[in-house]
Amino acid sequence: MKPNYRRTLLASAIALACSALSAPLLADTETDEIEHIEVRGQFGALSKALNRQRDAAGIVTVASTDEMGQFPDSNVSEALQRLAGLSVERDQGEGRFIRVRGLAPDYNSVTYNGTSLAAPEAGRRAVALDVIPSDLLESVEVNKTLTPDMAAGSLGGTVEIKSLSAFDRSNDFYSVTAEAGYNEQQSKTSPKVSGVFSKILDLGGETDSLGMAIAASFAERKFGSENVETGGSWDFEEGLEEFELRDYTISRERLGLALNLDYRPGSNNEYYLRSLYSRFSDNEQRQGLVVEFADPQWAGASGEAELLRSLKQREETQSITALVLGTRQTAGNWEWQLEGGASKADEDTPFNIGAADFEQAFDDGVGFSGSNILRLTAPADAFLAQSYTLKEVEMGDTYTKETERNIKFDLSHERIKGSASMQLKAGVKFSQREKTAAEDVWLFEDFADQGITALSMNDYASGVVDYSLSNLGPAVSSAAIYQLVAGLNRADFVDEVESQINDYQVDEDISAGYVMAQWQREHWQLVGGVRYEHEKRDAVGTRYDDSTELFSANRQSSSEGYWLPALVGRYNLAENSIVRAAFSTGLVRPNFEQLAPAFILERDDDELEAAFGNPDLKALTSNNFDLGIEHYADKLGVLSAMLFYKQIDNFIYEADLAGRGEYADFAKAETYVNGGSADLYGLELNAVHQLAGFDSWLDHLLLSANLTLTDSAADIEWFDDGSLLRREVALPSQSDKTANLSIGYETDSLSLRLAANYKSEYLAEVGDVSDAGYDVYADDHLQLDFSSKWTFSRGMQLYFNVINLNDEPYYAYTGRKPYNFQYEQYGRTVVLGVQITNW
């Protein structure tokens, strides 16, 4: 495409968006025109996303599939981290969960074409978005203001994943991508292939009435990481009690499939099917060396210690399936929509090595050096396989499944009088959610009594661990461990308590209804209404009393309703300037791990100790206030500033109830409780600017930057000698600063982009309720990524990406930075690929 033609096309798109601002609220024709404009490259992708963001009634951030393709991001969460107010939580260096405006992933909801996605992980509601390849999607929208027609389930925002439709493009479309990646921690090639195809067909005598879109993606990534961690085992007066060296070898596979059908027999009728299947397989092997000092000691000292060589190996598979079937009908000024949805997610970790431990004791000579990165100093025997003796092997088998089914009906009526329009809307929704978790644990020990003569680690060693942070010595063979336990009778080694106490089932039935109105006149647009949700919950877990060694079922039921009002408004100051304001209410139900009615009662030296879930927890609710202004450039660009404040009630945290109420005689009673209120407030700044008017290479530059500043406060309480004490903490996972900066350069044949993603330190977990010195903080994190594309022929691109260009590690500390909690490094990843598209 010629440069002047591309500029004309972009200007046309923005002009259409501007005209939509003054059109009636439901002007579908203008919207369709915008959606059908073909966009390419960085400039076009951003233009499309900004147009949709601009037209929204509330505060919405959009990432289109075209924009996601401009960054070297392999899954949905990594693509979203580029947007204002969003940050990512990583697992082994890969993006997994999304935080919205500083709120943890469990405080945000994820939907697929309006249907809530089930979460595969045990105990959580947060959806791990690394399960879903970004190739399968048309766009992702993050609604930061909640309206009554949106299902409850978030405090920070709702991540709406929209699948591709054939009607999103004006012509038949296909795209095929193939790539190979390389991680410097593992000298292996990681392949990926994906394809998208859409076609519009004639059906039943109607022209262009059936749309079909198919997408498929497969990727395998082989990489590794190196880790050293203390887990917070610090005595700040005497020194470190223990630490561990870890080396990970990881292979991950992602498979994604999507099929979407749209049938539009006329302008007033629409029938649609949306489907998604995504599977994520994570094969992980961890070689570890655990150092347990007899007495705490500081760096540079040496003394008595026990060393454990430990192996963990498991293959974990997560899958998410979603299906949405619906119809939308229009008759005059009336429109109704009937939709049914279902989602299933599971996590399966079959018979695996939880820990295979070999031990060796030293009377002296064991110590460490360093602070952030701890390095072991020890006698030579610490690194010899024949010096370790087999201690025990723990094996596990876990399975978690969550299902969500829903049906909803929406009815709307529009009235237009002069320059004003009013849409009245009401709807009902019924949903059922079920979460089950099952776990089996075996503890194999006393091997000599079982007639096992191979008790040296040398009998199970294979090769040497490639670990640059220190020295681990020989590797433990997972195949040899599986062979060892295969010769033993599993039934003789079942850990009865661990195999039952973590099993649970939670059923939730939710009935919801709402009424709302949308009014627009000249420069004004208002959306207001209220939603009511009633929840009935049944939960069953296991109770265990170690004094009687008896198990019993523990059942709990609850029923509660919530009113959720909202008022959202926007005012057009000028053709390109918009003021937005909103009041909304949010609701997040407790995690399943927090709700599960498991109860374990133990007696230790005549003292009672208990640990249990709390089915009586109340849902978190929030009052949300937003105020901001946006200014859109005549060409491509935006400047915006958004203030927000959230007052959160029933904040949940882990607490010890010993000494109060029915646990007055307990030495320990650990569970989850509702606190009082928490506050979160912040400022979100966003700027996008395409340089123009220089008549030089500068006209090919695109600058994009966003910054989110937040602060939060919540009170936690505990008892000390009968006195109720409290202290203030920040909300977990809330970074005070989150920022993105990218510099793009684009011509007809070349596209370059350098992106920086930053988040400041945040509270990862409360280490000790009564002592802030043991709180765990994740250090600030800055990652650079580079992407480049070369169009060497029409519709054919060659791309080269570098992920984690600056080799940024993950670091967490206990209380203060010198006290390591965890250090982990991942290395760089480079990707070379080709894409063929029928533009």
UniProtKB/TrEMBL annotation:
For membrane topology, the record states: Multi-pass membrane protein
Asked whether the keyword Signal is assigned, the reply is yes
- List locations, semicolon-separated: Cell outer membrane
Keyword field? Cell outer membrane, Membrane, Receptor, Signal, TonB box, Transmembrane, Transmembrane beta strand, Transport
The similarity comment for this entry is: Belongs to the TonB-dependent receptor family.
Phylogenetic classification of the source organism: Bacteria, Pseudomonadati, Pseudomonadota, Gammaproteobacteria, Chromatiales
Indicate the segments forming the TonB-dependent receptor plug domain, all copies.
Answer: 53-158
According to UniProt, the name of this protein is: TonB-dependent receptor
Gene Ontology cellular-component terms listed: cell outer membrane
Organism, as annotated: Arsukibacterium tuosuense
Chain ranges of the TonB-dependent receptor-like beta-barrel domain: 339-805
Annotated signal peptide: 1-27
| Lipid biosynthesis keyword on record | no
